[in-house]
Write a structure and sequence with these properties.
single chain, globular, mainly alpha
Length: 191
């Protein structure tokens, strides 16, 4: 990451992300648009984070964030589990190895594995994992938590990528998992 040159614009098309989401369209079913929008909100929150913290992301950095975004919750749908971090990480790992990007495995898996951490990821404040964690929490909290990102930017991102039932679906899945596993209702959370 380097020093920034300009304020972030909302990104609405990332080829790798779009290809991955399209190939999962049938498995995502009626949740496809909701998940797609969630991922694009998270990616855009990362871009906003970088701008707010005077960092510039290279195209490779953005590609890594997009891949982490695509895979971070996908185990819910592709592996039919609410304990989805491990399956999501494994799918990302397999994809990266298959695409000849095994040197990206560690930072991308870290973004996925730490994105539901309740506390800061690193001593290094501006790591990719911490940026991604904050970006996801901004979205999951529906912008109630912003980690000092401008609320106006969070609203613009939400307007570009509406919720379309994403949070309602998370609540449904959480309740179903609570009945199935009452001693571990939210297995993805970490301290």
């Amino acid at each position: 990451m380097h020093q920034p040159t300009s304020a972030p614009t909302i990104v609405s098309h990332l080829p790798t992300l779009d290809i991955l989401l399209h190939q999962w369209r049938s498995q995502l079913g009626k949740d496809h648009e909701a998940y797609r929008n969630h991922v694009y909100r998270v990616v855009n929150h990362c871009l906003c984070y970088a701008s707010t913290h005077n960092l510039t992301l290279s195209q490779i950095d953005i590609e890594k964030i997009a891949i982490a975004g695509a895979f971070h919750d996908i185990g819910i749908w592709l592996d039919n589990t609410f304990d989805y971090l491990g399956p999501s990480e494994q799918r990302a790992n397999n994809y990266l190895v298959r695409e000849g990007k095994s040197h990206w495995v560690n930072p991308i898996i870290r973004m996925i594995s730490e994105h539901h951490k309740l506390t800061q990821c690193d001593v290094e404040e501006h790591s990719f994992a911490e940026m991604f964690r904050q970006a996801d929490w901004i979205d999951v909290s529906m912008g109630m938590i912003t980690f000092a990102l401008p609320r106006s930017q969070v609203r613009l991102i939400r307007k570009a990528f509406p919720y379309v039932g994403f949070h309602k679906r998370l609540i449904q899945l959480s309740l179903a998992n609570s009945l199935k596993s009452p001693l571990k209702p939210l297995p993805m959370f970490k301290w």
